[in-house]
Amino acid sequence: MIKRFKNIILVGTSHVSKDSLVEVEKTILKEKPNIIAIELDKDRFQTIILNKRGKTSLKAIRTIGFKGYAFGIIGAWLEKKVSKITKSNPGAEMKKAIELAKKEKIPVALIDINIKSTLKGISKNITWREKFRFFKEFLKVAFIKKNQKGIDIRKVPSEDKIDELTIQLKKFYPSLYKILITDRDIHMSKGLYKISRTNDVVVAVIGAGHVKGIISLLKKEKWPTKKQTGKNSEQ
């Protein structure tokens, strides 16, 4: 999924899709951006790009909160399980973007909220109802062997499917929706707005579920009335 707003090209990806890997590479080589924004923070950059996963201390678990820590462990396990089906490592498209940036000598901006802050927010705000529902859904998908509900997990979902899944997340997991989607959309949109003011062409590699929300937030920013210098600018 590729969307354009002003001088920003947003590449909406699935973190376990080979199609996303190809789309990221094609977009960066075609657009030749001045900077590449990535949906990563420093800690996840170390994990995905440098393959450095540090041991989590008891002190860190207390800081994050057990619920947030458990959520992170389950999420990573599910992502790894799905990646075996799609035959694409989690975050491969992010790694490809970083590798191309290094090769083409393009600066990189890490625009996501720190993962520890996100997990801490989950620990503090997730409700008992959400925890119970999440556990039930986890048991259903834990034994997944092939695609379900008409979703091809090897590809980036369509916009309609993303909207449908987003509505369900907001309805059944309002606390998680705010922490995982709304708060991160706000943080990443501010980062993109800042770097877009000093760079002609920005390519942003982000999860497909964030694209619509980020564009909506960017439209509320104070943009110059003068036409942007980026390619294919949207007014």
What does this protein look like?
With 235 residues, the chain is an alpha/beta fold. It has one domain (2-218). The chain is built from 10 helices and 5 strands; from the N terminus they run ββαβααααβααααβα. The protein has helices spanning 18-31, 42-48, 58-64, 66-86, 92-104, 115-125, 128-141, 159-172, 174-196, 208-218, and strands at 2-5, 8-13, 35-38, 108-110, 202-207. The chain has a 5-stranded mixed sheet, with helices on both faces. It is globular and about 50 Å long.
Short description:
Helices cover 57% and strands 10% of the residues. It has 235 residues and is an alpha/beta fold. The chain has one domain.
Biggest sheet: strands side by side, in what order?
A: 1-2-5-3-4
Could you say which structural class the secondary elements and strand pairing correspond to? alpha/beta
What is the helix/strand order?
Answer: EEHEHHHHEHHHHEH
Apparent shape: globular
The largest sheet, given as strand count, sense and whether it forms a barrel, is: 5 strands, mixed
Helical residues, percent: 55-70%
Q: Mean pLDDT, as a whole number? A: 78
Count of the domains: 1
How many strands appear in the DSSP assignment? 5
> In percent terms, what proportion of residues is strand?
5-15%
Instruction: State the helix count.
Output: 10
What integer value in Å does the Rg equal?
18 Å
Task: List the uncertain runs.
Answer: 227-235
